């Protein structure tokens, strides 16, 4: 039986957080723990989400643009959506534009 995939979303923060200088966040769920991690830049949020995803495979990082649409996604570990050839690569990174 395969483990449930953890999904981390990199999204803009709410207006209150943005007023305090926090423009981006990593949101997700690690088991029962709900994650809302603030970051000042989108790149900082992406870097943090990718580190977390590598630690909690199988996982996926979904990066959203300011308007909410999905910019890109990264997949880590053995996931049901991976091709048979990719499944043999363990926790190596796969990802890119849709």
Compact overview of the structure:
The protein is an alpha+beta fold and 98 residues long.
Mind explaining what this structure looks like?
The protein has three helices and six strands. Helix content is 23%, strand content 39%. It has a six-stranded mixed beta sheet, with helices on one face. The longest helix is centred in the middle third of the chain and has 14 residues, at 42-55. The chain has helices at 15-19, 42-55, 84-87, and strands at residues 6-12, 24-30, 33-39, 59-64, 70-76, 93-96.
How is the topology of this model organized?
Elements: E1 6-12, H1 15-19, E2 24-30, E3 33-39, H2 42-55, E4 59-64, E5 70-76, H3 84-87, E6 93-96
Parallel strand pairs: 1-4
Antiparallel strand pairs: 1-2, 2-3, 4-5, 5-6
pLDDT below 50 for ≥5 consecutive residues: which ranges? 86-92
Strand order of the largest sheet: 3-2-1-4-5-6
The total count of strands amounts to 6
| Average of the residue pLDDT scores | 82
Shape: globular
Separation, N- and C-terminal Cα atoms: 28 Å
- Strand residue percentage: 35-45%
In DSSP terms (H or I, runs of 4 or more residues), the helix count works out at: 3
What class would the helix/strand composition place it in? alpha+beta
Biggest sheet features = 6 strands, mixed
SSE arrangement, N to C: EHEEHEEHE
In which range does the helix fraction lie? 10-25%
| Oligomeric assembly | single chain
Computed CA radius of gyration, to the nearest angstrom? 14 Å
């Amino acid at each position: 039986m395969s483990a449930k995939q953890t999904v981390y979303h990199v999204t803009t923060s709410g207006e209150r957080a943005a007023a305090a200088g926090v423009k981006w966040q990593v949101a997700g769920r690690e088991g029962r723990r709900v994650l809302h991690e603030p970051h000042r830049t989108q790149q900082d949020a992406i870097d943090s989400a990718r580190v977390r995803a590598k630690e909690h495979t199988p996982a996926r990082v979904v990066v959203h643009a300011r308007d909410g649409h999905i910019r890109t996604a990264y997949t880590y570990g053995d996931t049901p959506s991976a091709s048979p050839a990719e499944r043999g690569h363990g926790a190596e990174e796969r990802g890119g534009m849709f």
